[in-house]
Amino acid sequence: MSKHVVKVLGKGCARCATTEQLVRDVVAALGADVQVEKVTRTADMIAYGVMATPSVVIDERVVHSGGVPTRSAIEAWIGALT
User: Fold this and answer.
1) pLDDT at 82
2) How far are the Cα atoms of 1, 2, 42, 71 from residue 26, in angstroms, in the given order?
3) DSSP annotation string for 8-35
4) What is the pTM assigned to this prediction?
5) Could you tell me if 27 and 6 are in contact, meaning their C-beta atoms sit under 8 angstroms apart?
6) For residue 16, which of 7, 62, 73, 79 sits 20 to 30 Å off, Cα-Cα?
7) Which uninterrupted H or E stretch holds 36?
8) Closest Cα partner for 8 from 45, 33, 43?
9) Cβ–Cβ under 8 Å, residues 34 and 81
């Protein structure tokens, strides 16, 4: 089975940085075999249909958009992958 990919979409604002760090922290805490990527290109974000950032995409499916997700939400998303 291929490795899961979690993408954090955002231009680099504080909320985007917080979201990326939360995702990385949860992945590390759960020991999940997940690749985390930061997406900053506007064209890439538009391709996902995202109008608000930060957004989180898991395995090419948008699971969150606009605002920092809660740690418990991220834990649920990552936990479901393992």
Assistant:
1) 75
2) 21, 20, 26, 8
3) EE-SS-HHHHHHHHHHHHHHHHHT--EE
4) 0.93
5) yes
6) 79
7) strand 34-39
8) 45
9) yes
- 36-58 pLDDT, tens digit per residue, is 999 999 999 999 999 899 999 99
Residue whose entry in the numeric block shows the structure tokens 């805490």? 29
- The answer to whether the beta carbons of residues 17 and 53 sit under 8 Å apart is no
| Alpha helices, DSSP H, located in 31-70 | 42-47
Query: Are the beta carbons of 54 and 75 closer than 8 angstroms?
Result: no
Please give the DSSP secondary-structure letter assigned to residue 81.
Answer: H
Rg of the chain, C-alpha, whole Å: 12
Per-residue pLDDT of the chain (82 residues; tens, 9 = 90+): 469 999 999 998 999 999 999 999 999 999 999 999 999 999 999 999 998 999 999 999 999 999 999 999 999 999 999 7
Length reported for the chain: 82
